[in-house]
């Protein structure tokens, strides 16, 4: 049994040494919300964001590429309450994502309202930073202006970004994780 543990430890150490020169993914679940206060229409997106990739390459900086190579994954957005273009779309329904920051953001808190070189991130009062998505499927939402989505391929209502933040882990998950660490520590003694 001790030999197996030693082999595992050597394998783990070799894997860590091999990856030491490259940044490891730090994937965090996020939520983005858009709304149109006049009509009550909303859009809510859930996705995973590799904040290590964002910090290394786009914070500050810009990204306008396909979803396939972006730091976003598992993207799903639901539009509700609009006069047209309601529904749910997944990552494969989108061709492009656009992410721009002019000053580094703290990726672990609400992004909307964080300072930028001009104004704050999440406001369209200037044209220097942005987050937008572009549907490639009929009827999907599409970015039509800075931090704005329009439903139904740009023909429907305009929705304004109101929030872009990490999803907090439920307290129960944190307690279970801590309990697991304590249990492992006790078993080793």
Question: What attributes does this structure have?
Answer:
three-stranded antiparallel sheet, single chain, 189 residues, alpha+beta
Write up this protein.
It is a single chain. The chain is an alpha+beta fold and 189 residues long. The protein has one domain. 23% of the residues lie in helices and 35% in strands. A 7-stranded antiparallel sheet has the order 5-4-2-1-10-9-8. Strands 3-6-7 form a 3-stranded antiparallel sheet, with no helix packed on it. A hairpin with a 2-residue loop joins β8 and β9. The longest helix has 18 residues. It is globular.
Whole-number radius of gyration? Answer: 20 Å
Helix and strand string, N-terminal first? HEEHEEEEEEEEH
* N- and C-termini, Cα separation: 17 Å
How many strands appear in the DSSP assignment? 10
Summarize this structure briefly.
The chain has 189 residues and is of the alpha+beta class.
Protein topology:
Blueprint: H1 2-19, E1 27-35, E2 42-50, H2 51-57, E3 61-66, E4 72-80, E5 87-90, E6 94-101, E7 130-135, E8 142-145, E9 148-150, E10 158-166, H3 171-188
Antiparallel strand pairs: 1-2, 1-10, 2-4, 3-6, 4-5, 6-7, 8-9, 9-10
